[in-house]
Amino acid sequence: MAYQKLQVGLGINVIPSATINIPNVAGPTQGKTVTSVSGLKLVDSGGGFTDNLLGSIVYNTTNNTIATVVAVDSSTQLSLSANIFTVSGNAYVIYGDDNPGCVLYVGGAGDLHVLTSSDSDITFTGVLAGSFIPVQVKRVFNDSTASNILALW
Prior knowledge:
Layout: E1 11-13, E2 29-33, E3 41-43, E4 57-60, E5 65-74, E6 77-80, E7 91-95, E8 102-108, E9 110-116, E10 121-127, E11 131-140, E12 147-152
Antiparallel strand pairs: 1-12, 2-7, 3-6, 4-5, 4-7, 5-6, 8-11, 8-12, 9-10, 9-11
């Protein structure tokens, strides 16, 4: 009997969002820590930010929040779509683009609301803890009750 074998090379913790896709961890990235706090801004005195970051996905890896870059204000400051940095010293990673589709591992049981790679909006009801979802997914919506979700490539 034939079966699908999952061989993972890359992975990331998923931060669910109503509007932002899971980032492409194989694409360009940069990250450090925030040096000061200013509203909907990412401020890093050593940032070296350039215009090509517009639209990039920002993960606050300290508190697991997500936003996109809406403007590059300077080489040390970015404007974000959400206020994800409320204290200085938070670590961040900026991902250059979103992913074309990944499979998911669900660590905590619940319902899983996703956007597939073909832009189908579907909900997996009653996903068990420890389950793999072998569907190409671009986004996990923040109304999902499943938890501890990993995106895998």
